[in-house]
Structure formats: structure tokens, C-alpha cells
Write a structure and sequence with these properties.
The protein has helices spanning about 10-35, 65-70, 100-105, 135-150, 165-175, 185-190, 195-205, 215-220, 220-230, 245-250, 260-275, 300-310, 320-325, 330-340, 345-355, 380-385, 390-400, 405-420, 435-445; strands spanning about 1-5, 40, 45, 55-60, 105-110, 130-135, 235-240, 290-295, 430. By secondary structure, the protein is α/β, with parallel strands linked by helices. Helix 5 packs across helix 7 and helix 5 packs across helix 16 (about 380-385). The two termini are about 35 Å apart.
Length: about 450
């Protein structure tokens, strides 16, 4: 069993204060600048619209991020004007709605903009915190496969699924050794007339994260962590079952594969490493803060993220906040203030922090008959779980460093993963409580 310990008191408080300071300064500029102007001041020339925000919201496909986009004013791709056209600023009764702190301080990043995460010296490399939509990798893979399949009306190229008429066939091609493969893309599989060998290599190439199609399968947790080059604070790991370095300390998530396809990747990583040791490392990025919004607990996590980004007394007394930021007693003072606040004032703070736009209700889906379903045999499940081992390592790493989640919430998410993949040793992990997360959990429960 691997034991993962959270942030120390000093590190947790330091990171939280830094993020809240960045958020406060950005909101202050927005309030002084007004919505009609793009820049604040004549000298600074500081843009306020995305991507010039303190944080980023990374929408990983099939993790429930589409539900959250209705709560974000700028939740559209970089090439579209802001605020986004689908952002409704009026409610059903024609009352003006306000947006949350998360909406005002983050840049929305989805599939068309994922490539920008790896560009050095760009606005997409200057975020001080990331909010990531997450979901159990097994369930996300099933959803992504059926969503993109052309027989279900998906937009993926038909050749991308020519080898995989069903999910069971896909897992059959993965076999018992998913890391043994020869790199194969759509073109080479088609050139081989989609033979069994080429289809097997193609399936394994997809699960190794080396094929850009299907898109949602490619842009998973492992790929996003690698592209964003997220540098986390090192957290304590005690391992008795597997290599913990891949969870906490490694810059690249997951172990290297054993096929010929990984030799090309190793050469690319070597070239990237030389760049990182030279030009790119001249401007070292600070350690980043990661917050998670889990698909299984979207509403609760949305609330916890917004409350972590903003102190309760921020809107009423900015001078008091600045004093607290340098006093070292921000968290203790905040908890005392909140406990002494009456319910009416708490509701007022919640509206200021969460906005007045209601959280979307769970859509009642019509009974649609899909040609390709999520049904999978016990053997197929076992094979798919084995192929998802590196993806699960990245998922655990994200949970491990998510500051808004308590150890109990992280363990709940892993319990679901263990139900889906009971034989996967990588999931033999337990998150250990510490004083910080315990206080944050109590703080959140007191608000409910």
C-alpha cells in the first residue's frame, strides 16, 4: 500500500495566500477597469481578458466540463470573442446574473487550445493555478470511446474506428501486453488494410497516448500533465507496492513503454530536455497550485474551488486582506470570522463568490439506442484497466495535489476506481489526512 501525505501547514498556507493575492489583484483591476475596456492604465498595458488571467480552467474531454461551461463567462475557445456568445447574462425571469470567482479569473482551455500549454514564453505558460475537470479514467475512457465512435454519430474520422467496431473488440486487440507495440497511426493501419497486427498495434498506440485520434482518448490526464509541464510541490510518499516516483516527483507522468514506438518518443524527450536545460529554463516557473472538480461531485467541488480562491472578507475590506496576507494568520482568522457570521451574511458572501447564476440541473437524457455501447466483458475490463495503468498514475497525481480536496474526498474517488479496476495494483493508494485538509473540510462543512 502506498501512503500519500498532503501539503505541510506552511506550504499549504503559502500557496493559498499567493493564489488569493493574485485573484484579488485581478478582480481589483477588473473593478477599476470596467467591462468595456481591454486594458487597465496607460503604462502597464495589462490585458484583463483570457488568456491574461491568473488561472486556467482545463476542460478534459468527457469529465463533465461541458456542464461547468454554463457557469463560466469566457468558456469558449481562444479564437472566439470574449465574453462568449453562449454566456447568458440574464436569467429566465430577465434578471441580470453575476458569475463566480472562477469565471472571472480563469482562461478556458479545451481541445483546440491544448497545444498552447506546451509553448514557452506565452500567456499560456504564466498561470499561477490550474482548475482541472476530472473523472475516473476507466469511466472516462468508456464515455470517450462511445462518444467519438462514428456509428454513434461521433465526429472522429471513420478510419480511426475501422479496427474497432465495438468496445469489446478494442479491448481484445489490447490483449494482455498493451505496452508491447509498434507505433502505428491511422494511415499505416489503412495501408496494411487494417490487418489484425496493424489494428493491434494501433489500439496499443492509442492507449499509450501516441495517437491524436480519437481526440478525447489522446487528451487524457497523462497528456495534459506532460503538455502543461505542471511542476508540483514534492509531497511525501511512502511506497510498499509500486514506483511512487511516477506519482509525486516525476516530471513526466507514467512509465515508458516497451515498444518500438517509444524509441521515437525518447528521442523527442531528449531534444526537449536540451531545450529545457537551455533557453526554456532561464525563466523558471513557480510551483503551481492545482484544484480539481470531479465529475462525480461537480457542484460540491465547484463551491470548494471558489471559496478557496477567495477569502470571505475580501469584498468588504481589501486593506484588511492585505494585512492578513502578511500576518501569517489568514486561515485561522478566516475560520473565526466565518463561524461568527450570521446566516444572512453567509448567503451574501456566497452570492459574491459563487455568483447568482444557478448551477445547471442534471439533464434528463432521452432513451437513445446507441449502435456501440459501453458493455464490456470481465476479461475486456481487466485488459482495459491494465492499459490504463499510466493514465491512473496521472489521475492519482492530480488528486494528490488538488488543494481543494480533503483526504476523505480523494479516497472516495479512488474507491470508485478500485471498483472499476479491482485488480490494478497502481490503485493501492491511501491519502493520509493532515491538519490543513482537516480544517478545510470542516470549513466547507460548516458552510453547508
Amino acid at each position: 500500500m502506498t501512503v500519500l501525505t498532503g501539503y505541510s501547514d506552511d506550504t499549504f498556507t503559502q500557496l493559498k495566500k499567493r493564489v488569493q493575492k493574485d485573484v484579488h489583484e485581478h478582480l481589483l483591476l477588473l473593478s477599476q477597469n470596467g467591462k468595456g475596456q481591454r486594458y487597465y492604465g496607460d503604462v502597464k498595458k495589462r490585458p484583463l481578458l483570457p488568456p491574461h488571467t491568473p488561472g486556467a480552467f482545463i476542460h478534459i474531454g468527457k469529465t463533465g466540463g461541458s456542464t461547468l461551461t454554463g457557469l463560466l463567462e469566457n468558456a469558449c475557445h481562444s479564437f472566439l470573442p470574449k465574453p462568449c456568445l453562449q454566456s447568458k447574462t440574464r436569467s429566465s425571469n430577465n434578471k441580470k446574473v453575476t458569475f463566480s470567482i472562477l469565471s472571472k479569473t480563469t482562461t478556458y482551455i479545451h481541445v483546440p487550445d491544448f497545444n498552447k500549454l506546451s509553448r514557452a514564453n506565452s500567456p499560456y505558460s504564466n498561470f499561477s493555478f490550474y482548475v482541472v475537470s476530472t473523472r475516473d479514467p476507466f469511466e472516462r475512457t468508456l464515455s470517450a470511446f462511445t462518444y467519438e465512435h462514428p456509428r454513434n454519430g461521433g465526429k472522429a474520422p471513420k478510419q480511426a474506428f475501422a479496427c474497432f467496431p465495438t468496445l469489446e473488440r478494442f479491448t481484445e486487440l489490447l490483449g494482455d501486453e498493451p505496452k508491447r507495440y509498434k507505433h502505428t497511426n491511422i494511415a499505416s493501419a489503412a495501408a496494411a488494410s487494417f490487418s489484425f497486427a496493424s489494428c493491434r498495434n494501433f489500439a496499443r498506440t492509442i492507449m499509450a497516448g501516441k495517437s491524436k485520434y480519437p481526440t478525447h482518448l489522446y487528451f487524457g490526464f497523462r497528456t495534459i500533465l506532460e503538455r502543461a509541464s505542471l511542476q508540483f510541490h514534492d509531497l511525501e510518499v511512502t511506497s510498499n507496492s509500486f514506483d511512487s516516483t511516477a506519482v509525486a516527483n516525476s516530471a513526466a507522468v507514467g512509465k515508458a513503454g516497451h515498444g518500438e514506438g517509444d524509441q521515437k518518443n525518447e528521442k523527442q524527450n531528449h531534444r526537449r530536455g536540451r531545450l529545457l536545460n537551455g533557453r526554456r529554463q532561464q525563466r523558471r516557473r513557480p510551483r503551481l497550485v492545482v484544484l480539481a472538480i470531479r465529475n462525480e461531485h461537480k457542484k460540491d467541488d465547484f463551491v470548494s474551488v471558489n471559496h478557496l480562491l477567495m477569502t470571505t472578507n475580501l469584498h468588504n475590506n481589501s486593506n484588511s486582506l492585505r494585512t492578513l496576507q502578511h500576518s501569517g494568520n489568514l486561515q485561522e482568522h478566516q475560520q473565526t470570522q466565518w463561524n461568527a457570521t450570521d446566516r444572512r451574511t453567509k448567503t451574501k458572501y456566497d452570492k459574491l463568490i459563487l455568483g447568482t447564476k444557478p448551477f445547471p440541473e442534471k439533464a434528463s437524457r432521452e432513451q437513445t439506442t446507441f449502435n456501440v455501447t459501453k458493455s464490456i466483458s470481465p476479461l475486456g475490463r481487466k485488459r482495459l484497466c491494465r492499459a490504463l495503468e499510466d493514465e491512473y498514475r496521472a489521475y492519482i497525481r492530480l488528486l494528490h495535489h488538488s488543494m481543494n480536496l480533503s483526504p476523505r474526498e480523494k479516497n472516495d474517488s479512488l474507491n470508485l476506481s478500485r471498483q472499476n479496476c479491482p485488480d490494478l495494483k497502481t490503485l493501492q493508494v491511501i491519502f493520509v489526512p493532515n491538519n490543513n485538509h482537516h480544517r478545510e473540510s470542516e470549513h466547507r462543512n460548516s458552510r453547508g
